[in-house]
Amino acid sequence: MHPTDPTDHRQTPRVLSIAGTDPTGGAGIQADLKSIAANGGYGMAVVTALVAQNTMGVRSVHIPPVEFLTEQLDSVSDDVEIDAVKIGMLANSTIIEAVADWLRRQRPPVVVLDPVMVATSGDRLLDERAVDAIRNLVRHADLVTPNIPELAVLADEPAVSRWDDVLEQAHRVSATYGVTVLAKGGHLADGSASDALVDAGGRLSGGRDLFEFPGERIETTNTHGTGCSLSSALATLRPQAPGWEHAVDRAKRWLTESITHGAALRVGHGNGPISHFAGLWAGQDGAWS
Ligand SMILES: Nc1ncnc2c1ncn2[C@@H]1O[C@H](COP(=O)(O)OP(=O)(O)O)[C@@H](O)[C@H]1O
Ligand SMILES: Cc1ncc(COP(=O)(O)O)c(N)n1
């Protein structure tokens, strides 16, 4: 039963995305809102940066004054009880500080941080000088979801390419920052796309420090926004699930189906988007009454 069923007293999670934009709808805030809806949440969004981008790359970035960011954040939290927040593109250290300040004042029960640094196209989305600030922000999160290059930056170590090394690096990041880590294997070169939930403090169910989520690489170029979509799905599912591993298991199954059906959308000429509602649409027969 879905939580919006009036006979069901569970609350639909109210989920806030704090992120940049993608006018082609595949990544950033636009992807987050679709992902939150597809996973049973009520989506809200605060924009950190306006990004002129498409499936082929980033053209330019416009950053509104930081006071306006704080005004947006307070507008939401002064009015709405937020069950979970997903933080994505933050662009520079001034924005990171403003989000950290707001978290100190208004911390929602679930905070997922996707430490966005570089787009799939290779364009930078975080100022190189802001790396220390993002490392500090990790300490405010419950879950951080780095891809392999981002994991290495957080660890302040060279990037690794073997899965066992990824797990060890994720363990060190978890211990250093006191945070649960979802290490994402989408950048592995061996035909797999496995992820792993790692917590050096044994905060996972049963006091475990590792849950692995094996996955096979789908042959597709529709991977724009996979990280954005996964982190918002996790922020949405965590308030509904008994533990992080349950949320990751469901999110990964949903993401795999959404990646599989991305190409059918025929959006753009580069790295296309995923199909966030493929599972929902599969249940519709298409006949008009
Ligand atoms: N080609 C693919 N086939 C299946 N799963 C994928 C593929 N590419 C990425 N994923 C999955 O998408 C999610 C995002 O992974 P990744 O690409 O590593 O992060 P990011 O989008 O932040 O760079 C992970 O769950 C990863 O396993
Ligand atoms: C505004 C914004 N945020 C994040 C990404 C990264 O996307 P991906 O999930 O493909 O790494 C992006 N391209 N644009």
UniProtKB/TrEMBL annotation:
The UniProt record lists the keyword Iron: no
InterPro entries xrefs: HMP/HMP-P_kinase_dom (IPR004399), PM/HMP-P_kinase-1 (IPR013749), Ribokinase-like (IPR029056)
Single GO term (MF): phosphomethylpyrimidine kinase activity
Keywords on record: Kinase, Thiamine biosynthesis, Transferase
UniProt enzyme class: transferase
Documented EC number(s): 2.7.1.49, 2.7.4.7
Domain spans labelled Pyridoxamine kinase/Phosphomethylpyrimidine kinase: 22-274
Catalysed reactions, semicolon-separated: 4-amino-5-hydroxymethyl-2-methylpyrimidine + ATP = 4-amino-2-methyl-5-(phosphooxymethyl)pyrimidine + ADP + H(+); 4-amino-2-methyl-5-(phosphooxymethyl)pyrimidine + ATP = 4-amino-2-methyl-5-(diphosphooxymethyl)pyrimidine + ADP
Top-rank lineage group of the source organism: Bacteria
Pathway the protein contributes to: Cofactor biosynthesis; thiamine diphosphate biosynthesis; 4-amino-2-methyl-5-diphosphomethylpyrimidine from 5-amino-1-(5-phospho-D-ribosyl)imidazole: step 3/3
Keyword Kinase in annotation: yes
The protein's role, per its UniProt record: Catalyzes the phosphorylation of hydroxymethylpyrimidine phosphate (HMP-P) to HMP-PP, and of HMP to HMP-P.
PANTHER family named in the record: HYDROXYMETHYLPYRIMIDINE_PHOSPHOMETHYLPYRIMIDINE KINASE THI20-RELATED, PHOSPHOMETHYLPYRIMIDINE KINASE
Descriptive protein name: Bifunctional hydroxymethylpyrimidine kinase/phosphomethylpyrimidine kinase
UniProt source species: Polymorphospora lycopeni
